[in-house]
Amino acid sequence: MTAIAPIFGTKRKRNGSNVIPKVLPVQLLPAQLRPIAFRIFTKKHNLTLKSDALKLLAEWVGQRCGVEWRTTAEPRLDEIARIWGKREESNPLVSEDKLVPILRDIDVPHTIKSVSTKNKKDDVESLDIPQSKAVDIDPAKYLVVIDAFNQPKWVFNPHRKTFEKSLEPPCIVAAAASHKPGFFRERYFVLKQRLLRNEAFQAPSFSGSQISQGKDYHKITSIKNLLGRAGQSFMLFGMLAIAPQGHLYLEDVDDTVKLDMSEAARVSGDGWFAPGCFVLVDGTFASDGRFRVLTLGHPPVERRQLSKEIYGHIDFLGLQHGERETEKYLRRAEHHFENAKIVVASDVKLDDAKTMNALKNMFEHYNGTTIECPLAFILCGNFMSNLFHTNGFSAQYKERWNALATLIDSFPHLARGCKWVFIPGPNDPWTSSLYLPRKEIPSVFINRVRRVCKDCVFASNPCRISYFTQDIVIFRDDVLSRLRRNSMVFKPAVKEQEQGDDSYRPPPDQDDIPDDVKAARNVLVRTILDQGHLSPFHVSIKPVLWDFDYTLRLFPLPTALIVADADCPSFEITYGGCHTINPSSLSFGSNRAGWVEYFPARTKGQRVDKSI
């Protein structure tokens, strides 16, 4: 593959001296590797190797270094020890389970640094990857599905201004009552610390010189500090809530204040505002205790790169990634597979003949020899047209899944060559269709699909996909209609402010979309990403599992967000550096099928429409 050289490093020499022959693996015993491993891990890096870790290293070195392992293993082991020291600072005991992801990451071809030389500034630019190494990377190995219920829980500490790993495991059923207000406080602190990093909310270092130049900044005032300051203007930050009497209130962690919305206006294009949303409120405090709102807006979004610079050392997904040097290797490998794609289809109703026909046409589209096989198929519910109920419905539901297994089995190339991910919708079975996140579809219904598909995952809703350096969030919910039902109505909007780099960037081929559809998708995407949450509603509107609210959090912003909303037309838009896609329904119209292809290397989606 000639494209590997300009991506991974310097140009290949014409005489072929840069091409390395394949390594002949050898069977290496742990006792043979122990002296070198002891010298590198224990004497140099003050680490202790457990017996299972030493056995794993012996197998890995024997496969990667071959017969010359005595001369080539030392720099590789040194690199592994350095990465361990950065990822597990407080854990000197090297174990097999935490060593596996490190070995997987450094399997990406890169130059091994000498043990005796110091790091150079141009190490990344001088990566020289032999051409023979290109075929060693299997991108499917780096595509990992993270279930919401397996995601580690990180809690924000407002005093230390950082995230800390929760010592108490989250609970689905018997969650403590104190955890209910706790997750709203968590949302508040995460959004506020993001808000205060925005340049518009940072006080100037030299106030005299800044004011003389006509520059100003916004200051957030706590609600409890409004007392005795009637007639003054303030900017507040808190959560919208409706009292039992029907009045609208704003809440923060200290107090509440009643809002007078008679003169309120929102910034044009600034999203929907429903109870449960955290908002910035600009207005005047009145003598009767009400806060007269002039303008209302969402907290500004923070780009993923900035969040990663601050919290890049935190492993939010539990994959033990984060070592920046390794991440650069992964990014180069990610860009090499330019045509690798993930196929996403939504509202795959297995009891609908038109949808099954559309699904068959989609499989036929990728089964030919002219189109490269996708990395994965992601099929989102609802998998039935009607809401699941236990009264005689289970047999019919299982029969529909057996029919899907038969259909997939008729395309053996796809069944065995792709990863299959199934995500439940609101109509699919579990303890309740109301709560988020939702558990995966029970295994009693899908045994035959598991036998047919070589690599299949029945994931929660929502779930995440990690692909090299990318974080892809997949969420199946009819969030657009819920926002429309519960959003507040304002008077005509004020003039829209300049949005700079965070402005919308729709693809050029979507200029023919009707204006009302454009407005709906723009406001939907902005509401979700500005709120930093997949379900920015009060629990009375959309209940969530208290202890698992953190799995709905969008911080840092994902690389891509797939919102599978059947009630919203298909769209593709970039906002705040996050590429958001809605595949809409698989079957639409009288005889049309549509789905989305996502290309991670380009961070871009592509709509595919076919007649059936």
From TrEMBL:
<feature type="domain" description="DNA polymerase alpha/delta/epsilon subunit B">
    <location>
        <begin position="342"/>
        <end position="571"/>
    </location>
</feature>
<dbReference type="Pfam" id="PF04042">
    <property type="entry name" value="DNA_pol_E_B"/>
</dbReference>
<dbReference type="GO" id="GO:0042276">
    <property type="term" value="P:error-prone translesion synthesis"/>
</dbReference>
<dbReference type="GO" id="GO:0000785">
    <property type="term" value="C:chromatin"/>
</dbReference>
<dbReference type="GO" id="GO:0005737">
    <property type="term" value="C:cytoplasm"/>
</dbReference>
<keyword id="KW-0238">DNA-binding</keyword>
<keyword id="KW-0235">DNA replication</keyword>
<dbReference type="GO" id="GO:0043596">
    <property type="term" value="C:nuclear replication fork"/>
</dbReference>
<dbReference type="GO" id="GO:0045005">
    <property type="term" value="P:DNA-templated DNA replication maintenance of fidelity"/>
</dbReference>
<feature type="region of interest" description="Disordered">
    <location>
        <begin position="494"/>
        <end position="514"/>
    </location>
</feature>
<keyword id="KW-0539">Nucleus</keyword>
<dbReference type="GO" id="GO:0008622">
    <property type="term" value="C:epsilon DNA polymerase complex"/>
</dbReference>
<dbReference type="GO" id="GO:0003690">
    <property type="term" value="F:double-stranded DNA binding"/>
</dbReference>
<protein>
    <recommendedName>
        <fullName>DNA polymerase epsilon subunit B</fullName>
    </recommendedName>
</protein>
<dbReference type="GO" id="GO:0030337">
    <property type="term" value="F:DNA polymerase processivity factor activity"/>
</dbReference>
<dbReference type="GO" id="GO:0003887">
    <property type="term" value="F:DNA-directed DNA polymerase activity"/>
</dbReference>
<feature type="compositionally biased region" description="Basic and acidic residues">
    <location>
        <begin position="494"/>
        <end position="504"/>
    </location>
</feature>
<comment type="similarity">
    <text>Belongs to the DNA polymerase epsilon subunit B family.</text>
</comment>
<dbReference type="GO" id="GO:0140529">
    <property type="term" value="P:CMG complex assembly"/>
</dbReference>
<dbReference type="GO" id="GO:0003697">
    <property type="term" value="F:single-stranded DNA binding"/>
</dbReference>
<dbReference type="InterPro" id="IPR007185">
    <property type="entry name" value="DNA_pol_a/d/e_bsu"/>
</dbReference>
<dbReference type="InterPro" id="IPR016266">
    <property type="entry name" value="POLE2"/>
</dbReference>
